[in-house]
Automatic annotation (TrEMBL), chains A, B:
This is FMN-dependent oxidoreductase, nitrilotriacetate monooxygenase family. One of its GO terms (molecular function) is oxidoreductase activity, acting on paired donors, with incorporation or reduction of molecular oxygen. Transmembrane segments: none annotated. Residues 28-388 form the Luciferase-like domain. Keywords: Flavoprotein, FMN, Monooxygenase, Oxidoreductase.
Length: 461, 461
């Protein structure tokens, strides 16, 4: 694979949601009792994904206990800690963690991701989220979630600060001259002196530049603000797209926005989510899908749906369609794109609340596809060739079996069709995605000639 | 060893400062080039410490680049990330990380430490610091460091919030009843609804209670505020004490304050720091000590000393004693106890600035002891038996060799004298220190009889 030019091969990310994306997955016999905090479980998943040569694994997150603790495993390890633990038991696969720009300080988070990139040998990625929801806000001294647009303004400044901190050491800053007694060249380490609307940060970071320069920047919001943000900053985008037409439109829109922002559209990898439910026959796959839906306790899911739609639970009849008088997306200050996706899905397919819950239970709005391995490979190939995807975010409904089936049955088919790698050719996450290591924006690369305390440099932005 | 009652055995912690506590350690041939970010180096150190059956290892930290990057390795991995990586390569040794109450949010930090405790099987400890210094403040939007007393007020509330979050899941909350479809018992998970002067946090945490309940709480400040804080919250105290008399006085003072705060004084382990410089003969040890001091570049150290003393660098003559007109401790808003320790040391021994720099270069104010393994074991035994220490914070001047010498030569002597364990008898950090697992203050332990959705309970504080 050569960087940035290989359109033929697709990229695969394993989105690991504790015991599976389906909310009832934990009720199956294979599910470990404390899946969200069980390191042995995650170790097994990471090794399966690496055996399948996947580009990366990914951990979602929000700093809040989501929903009723009775419904599904709500206890989850903090993702940068879990990633670090998984770095120790894998060698090549990329490791992407979600962290919030609304509820962290740039200095701390930049340092943590730089540290994960160091300990993993250049395999770290950061899924940048702004974190919707009043419940999360109330864990951080706020009464309600900041306004959607404000969250994105803060996120943009946060990423700007973080990248400057990651660039605050030149790649050649550490000299380690034991004879001279100079450890790092002071003129190759600099303050960033950031003063903005949301942050003032002097810097420099107290970690030298990491193997990748900085973690791969990932984004997953699909609202207007989210797309603009992705176009400016993201190197990989995870997205929920229910139909091929929607997928193509989204793909083209984000690439167009990236070009408008002055970036090479090839520098962004777009990965729609797919929840593959795999059986030996289509009927067997459907039966598993239906069994999972039967295991949902609808009273939990109805409460959550009512919260998402900003209606009273009594306004939702399990065997009726959604009420007509829902808020518009403009009135939603939370996760706008998810809200619209759910309402559109229900209206388009005229789903009852009970059936909508079943559809959402499998992957929170992502496309569930039940079929044989051949059929899953076909739909992946079809979307890829139709221009809806540079790769896929694989979201197994049940873990570990759903990931195992994908790796053992679907990946070989994709390899046979020459759509997926047969060995890792790179060592860093960006190399897997065919993306370049970012240049340092605060320092020109220099050759000091004598290798010492050299000539200065610090080209400020 | 039985819990809390074993006065005979001492406790040993390895304080791992990148390539060694001596500022010139990195100039020795054994030192790796990027010691602060080199996971292989830290892995080696952790394994040596575990081979020596030490209670724990410890990582200091401040969210700022300390001093001139030329002087010594200033680039360091974030401690909770590094601890997690070290948990993966060790099995028994405790793992203590420093984190600041001034520059973190309680929800995030409580979650990270709970996660480290989960992935390490109950080996996490938190060294609670308030972080002095304007340089650090300016990485977090402040113009200067918050006032000393305010920092401790915030720290106390921070620890209160964190312990409530750690207690927000009863130990028996996760039921995992697959038949019934109830994952955790909602009535055994509760919000904390904290509203204080510094924080408002609803909770609950999104991680279930960890193997130790929560990380071992460690503290290291020795100012008045620091001692009161330790007396209220700390289970282990690291301290810098230059003389045996000072050590005994400190030990008695902290235990007395703990009793006055209504705690069992046996519930706090006090560990003075010692920088052992070990040779086959006393002369060899002294020669190594002097070689290290010769490798110091005094221009770096003088600048730092001037900053600590709040004087202009020109006021310090390398071959003169400290000036008479220094600020009093009351005028210092930074690390008060360190300031006083340095000034007292210089005045007591009438040290020139050059000689003071040499003494501080080895361990930033901790007691350097150069001698044979026998002599090191003798001084440890003497302080222990004289009532100045429950154990020691071992701060090798040079790593890895200083730790290797301690483990291979001093530990066996302490074992021969029946002063130190000959095998790990516990699996958690608290078990190593002979301390009890903390009770959950938000839930009474209950036996629900039928093992299900039981009876309720939540005794609020």
């Amino acid at each position: 694979m050569t960087r940035g030019t290989d359109r033929k091969h697709l990229h695969l990310n394993a989105f690991l949601m504790s015991v599976g994306h389906h909310e009832a997955a934990w009720r199956l016999p294979e599910s470990p009792a404390s899946g969200g905090t069980d390191l042995a479980h995650y170790t097994r998943l990471a090794r399966i994904a690496e055996r399948g040569l996947l580009d990366s694994l990914f951990l979602a997150d929000s700093p809040v206990l989501m929903g009723d603790p009775g419904r599904r495993p709500g206890s989850k390890l903090e993702p940068t800690v879990l990633l670090t633990a998984l770095a120790a038991v894998t060698r090549r696969i990329g490791l992407i963690a979600t962290a919030s720009t609304s509820y962290n300080e740039p200095y701390n988070l930049a340092r943590r991701f730089a540290s994960v990139d160091h300990v993993s040998g250049g395999r770290a990625g950061w899924n940048i989220v702004t974190t919707a929801g009043a419940d999360a806000a109330r864990n951080f001294g706020l009464d309600d979630t900041p306004l959607h647009h404000d969250r994105y303004l803060r996120a943009a400044e946060f990423v700007d600060v973080a990248t400057k901190l990651w660039d605050s050491w030149a790649d050649d800053a550490v000299l380690g001259d034991k004879d001279l007694g100079v450890h790092a060249r002071a003129e190759r380490v600099r303050r960033i002196d950031h003063k903005g609307a949301y942050f003032r940060v002097d810097g420099p970071l107290n970690v030298e530049r990491s193997p990748q320069g900085y973690p791969l920047l990932v984004q997953a919001g699909s609202s207007e603000d989210g797309r603009d943000f992705a176009a400016r900053y993201a190197e990989a985008v995870f997205t929920a797209q229910q139909t091929l037409d929607d997928g193509i439109a989204f793909y083209q829109d984000v690439k167009r926005r990236a070009a408008a922002a002055g970036r090479d559209p090839e520098g962004i990898r777009i990965l729609p989510g797919i929840v593959p439910v795999i059986g030996d026959t289509e009927a067997e796959a459907r039966a598993l899908d239906e069994e999972l839906d039967r295991l949902i306790r609808p009273e939990y899911a109805k409460l959550q749906l009512a919260r998402t739609l900003r209606v009273h639970p009594d306004a939702l009849g399990l065997d009726e369609e959604l009420p007509d008088d829902l808020p518009t997306e403009d009135e939603i200050e939370g996760a706008k794109s998810r809200y619209t996706l759910i309402v559109d899905l229900a209206r388009r397919e005229r789903l009852t609340v009970r059936r909508l819950i079943g559809r959402l239970g499998g992957g929170r709005g992502h496309r569930t596809f039940a079929g044989t391995a051949e059929q899953v490979a076909d739909t992946i190939q079809h979307w890829h060739e139709a221009g809806a995807a540079d790769g896929f975010n694989i979201m197994p409904a049940v873990l570990p079996s759903g990931l195992e089936l994908f790796v053992d049955r679907v990946v070989p088919l994709l390899q046979e069709r020459d759509l997926f790698r047969t060995e890792y050719t790179g060592t860093t996450l960006r190399e897997h995605y065919g993306l370049p290591r970012p240049a340092n924006r605060l320092f020109e690369p220099v050759d000091t000639g004598d290798g010492h305390l050299g000539i200065a440099l610090a080209g400020a932005r």
